[in-house]
């Protein structure tokens, strides 16, 4: 029997491979299922063990021999539909369904955390990143009626390796993580890039890398054709993001969740605070991080060395303190399914 991990996006696919790699080292069989991702990718392009769209799962035999099923899908309604359909099929065949688990893979808080939990009430287990999220959900559900079934919750840490993959470069290097739709203000992304271009031109001893944190088309240009870029400002090649975050001097972003890797690995971090703490900018997830700064207050690349460190208490509480998330999750799944032999 195998643990089946179902994914449909870049972060989701990387996370499922991260879990599967750890569990296979522990002697468990795992199957990562998902569609092929189009375009150039910022992460290593690992093909799923089975290339299949999640909507086609119930029409296949993939779940019949599952010891546990992880659903990591961007559309939460698909989690409900697959879980309900799978359990109905098991009842019709007289089978005991395997435990279903899911969770928001990135640290979220407040209304976003509550919404993510409510969307996964159909699951047997909901995983969150840190103990802080577990406490928030406990406070929310503490007065719910006992007859209302709620999934078990547990903290499993971050979705990337705890240890830095490469040492810091000797040359000053800034990695700017650019998101697809954030900042949402018209022209704000272009304005941010122009600011980075000015800094690069003023301090040529630095290298500034523009790194998309999402898939992109090879035809998409980072800047307009009539823009003259400093030679020390470059666009990242595909599949280079983790390596760059591992060896950079500093990381700058509006709200990319991948900036947490730079924080965890001890890099100087800048969360651009020009757009405020708003849900549409996803900056609410960084409230309390101690790394939010306005661009105009920074004054140039060399001043990054003077910035305070990320709030370590905040980082630890949202998942940084957990070093063996896959192992903890595996123990919890075994406890939910004691009649099943180890995969």
Describe this structure in words.
- By secondary structure, the protein is of the alpha/beta class.
- It is 31% helix and 17% strand.
- The chain has 10 helices and 13 strands.
- It has helices at residues 10-25, 76-92, 110-118, 131-141, 188-202, 241-247, 259-264, 295-298, 312-320, 325-336, and strands at residues 2-7, 30-34, 50-51, 66-72, 100-102, 125-128, 152-155, 173-178, 207-212, 233-235, 250-253, 268-272, 292-293.
- A 7-stranded parallel β-sheet has the order 3-2-1-4-5-6-7. It has a 6-stranded parallel β-sheet with strand order 10-9-8-11-12-13, sandwiched between helices.
- Helix 2 (76-92) links the parallel strand 4 and strand 5 (100-102).
- The longest helix has 17 residues, at 76-92.
- The relative contact order is 0.15.
- The model has no long low-confidence stretch (mean pLDDT 92).
